[in-house]
Amino acid sequence: MKTKLKRIVALMTVLAMSVLLLAGCGGGAEGEEAQSTGNTSGITVFNSKMEIQEQLLDMAEKYEKKTGVHVEVYYSSDTVSAHMATRYAANNPYTLSMVDAKDIYALAEEHAIPLEDEEWVKDTDYEISIGDHVYGFPVCVEARGIIYNADAIKKVTGEDFDPEKYKTLTEWKGLIEELKKGGMEAPTGVMKEDWSLGAHYLAQIYEEQENPDSFLMDLSKNKVKLMKNEKFNSLMDTFDVLKDNNYAKASAISAEREISEKKLAEGEIAFMFGGNWDWSQINQFDYTENMGMMPVPQDTDDGSNDKLVGGGSKYFFIDNSANTSDEQRQQAKDFLNWLVYEDDGQSFLVNDCALVPAFSNIDLPISDPLGASVSKYTNEGKLVPNYNYLPDDHFAILGAMFQKYLAGISDRKGFAKDVETYWHTKTLTSHSE
Amino acid sequence: MERNTMAYKSKQFLMFAGPALILFCMVIIIPFLYGLFLTFTSWDGVSAEKPFVGFANYVSAFKDAYFWSAIGRTLIYSAFAVVFVNVVAFLLAYMVTSGVKGQNFFRAGFFIPNLIGGIVLGYVWKFVFNRAFVAIGEAISGGTTPSLLSTTGGAMFCLILVSVWQYAGYMMLIYVAGFMSVSDSLKEAAMIDGCTPSQAMRNVTIPLMRTSFTTCIFLSITRCFVVYDVNLSLTKGEPFFSSVMAAMHVYNKAFTYKDYGTGQAEALILFIVCAIVGITQVYVSKKGEVEA
Fold first, then answer.
1. Do B46 and A107 touch (CB under 8 A)?
2. Does residue B15 belong to the interface with chain A, where contact is any CB pair within 8 Å?
3. Which tens digit of pLDDT belongs to each residue from B6-29?
4. What is the pLDDT of residues A122-153, one digit of tens each?
5. I need a surface site. Which of A177, A187, A203, A403 has the fewest CB within 10 A?
6. Is the CB of B108 inside 8 Å of chain A's CB atoms?
């Protein structure tokens, strides 16, 4: 009898514990849900620009003090699309998410609210629309080109560097030879990262075609021979100069980005292909203010050697799901307006985050030299637009093929063939706007 | 109380295994089945719709040349890593049970790499390969030495080396337990019967600790097949995809290239390959085990 009682007590305990355990799990999930649906005041913001995370956190505090709206800022080092996927799979989206242009095209129709009635739409050229609706709020303008260190050049040549004088490859090559004679052994740096090579340099070859969309369409249908394409050859000629004068030529594909940026900041090298986002790296070192960005030099007369390549970068969209209340959506809209129209919002974008604003009504001077160059080219309308529809595996696969070229494992013919082979596997739909 | 009724048996089972069973179902079985379902859809990872596409994902998985070369690479990597991990671990275990001075200190020392997370370890070794070795190489040769990590064979070599360094200490502990489980009297008896120490090792100790070998080889095979963290932080698949292991390819396919269905199908294929190799290994080694 006694043993039976003992056994029953034991059984009850185990049952109770396992029920508790389950309740614990279930309760956690419920609690979380209550938080995301029940918490109607205050917004969550997802940030995907690592370099402005600190500033955003500071701003959130000040913003709450001023407006009473609680702003919760999150950051993830995951790929943006992968992080969005987990949040949507967990049914716990952010009120306001900062994503890349391609993510807007992938997500917005299903998950974002239309914003065409907002005031800021008239003050920008960089919003993203799909069909009749505006979904993406441009956070900033970013552009690519050659970053130069004018001090380093002046030190060798004795003259002030004027990028306007070196638009053609011939002239620029001449300068590089001069620098080499003057004692700068290797005047250039090349970032080996697949995104730099694949998503930026290679993409420029498409973007500078007359019509990138139909060019890629023809490429995928095997109607284009890259070796006979003027743009491909012209940009690859310039790349060859970068590659041949690379300080890390012997081990080009193990060059670390930090080291290249440091050398550029400190004037050990004079040129590197990159974009104004590189400033957040350069300013970690002993940099000079006399830096800037210039178009990639090319022997061409189509005007592309007068322009940087770029446009809007990073876009906010507002969640449309039931997890976000209408009040939160309004608060998110107010926040976007604050960025564009309030003095402290503008100052936050331009001074605190050192971004180039995508709105024509913001006329604060840009603090960093690379941003200043971008802003100058933007205002003059000298920007070749980004092509935002490249397939998701493009940068990784062709980036790796480009690395092979950089390492000297394949030649231009081989690289052209790699690019063509990649595109032949793709079936494209047209995006002509 | 009747002890062989179904009710009694299932009550006993639930009492002891119930909580674990429920947890196992929640975190392994259900996600696995859900994953299986996703292989039949063309879901992109975010959309609310999951269009059913039948076996299309398996077809594209079988056509994905990058996937199969990643599997091939994983097989090569696993073969080398498993052999070296176990050889090194066995030798270390032999050394730290042979009664050398400070053997406990050595045991702890060799085990420590296993306590460092794979990501951190990858970054540490990346620094060693890219900076330290290069600096030493340049000091010796006088010229520029490219980093091992930037050559296609070198990156694989580095991966294997780091894996051996990481896992050998862990496996060593299992071998140590194996060595200790063999009673001294048996070894002494063998020696009295005229065995040399190496004969005693080969014919008495090793056969008696076969369970350790089974466990260690199984653990190292399954770990090597799904290696990801070291792969990510040490080589990131570079240069030119020459060090992309199967797990990394699957992750990229699903999340970076946003081809979720195909990635999931490839993950399932990887699981099946891994399960077949693992089960075969256990079956074969179990057959040869002896009871003391």
1. yes
2. yes
3. 888 888 888 899 899 999 999 989
4. 888 888 888 888 898 898 888 999 999 888 88
5. A177
6. no
